[in-house]
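Researcher: Structure prediction, please.
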Amino acid sequence: MAAARETDDIARSLVHHRHDHPPPRDLNREADRRLRRGQRAAEDLARLIGSWTFVLAQLTLTLAWLVLNVIGYTNHWDAYPFQLLDLVYSVQATLWIALALMALNRLAERERLRAQSDYEVNIKEEDELKALMTHLEVQDEVLIQVLARLDRLDRELRRQSRRLGVADEQAG
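Model: Predicted structure follows.
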């Protein structure tokens, strides 16, 4: 009876671990949800200007412009030095650079959010590790108590067997 009571005391003293933290957040979905219509359009355009589709379309339009102005018999809207084409490219380059910089700013903001999330996850992991280490320390103490109890019971059993005159078969 005393052994059962001691076992119940040990079971009550065990640390029971709980996960008391919120679920992880999807930062990309949160950032997308906060984008306004103009920001979404700028992001799509920035994605487009960084693609082969855009490069090929730009090349096709340039070649069409040049061909139509060189072989155009009557209507040359942009004569040989192609100053209008240079102006269009200058304005276009300025706009594309501004769009690319805005996309980089949004990317930096997402990276900042991701770093914050990593920090929060690291804090949670540290708390979990502390709880796990505490649990393991308690388990070590319980194992030491169990070993001490087994040793005490073994000594008591040997003492009783000597008292009753039963030979110790384990000693041989």
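Model: The longest helix spans residues 83-164.
Researcher: Thanks, that helps.
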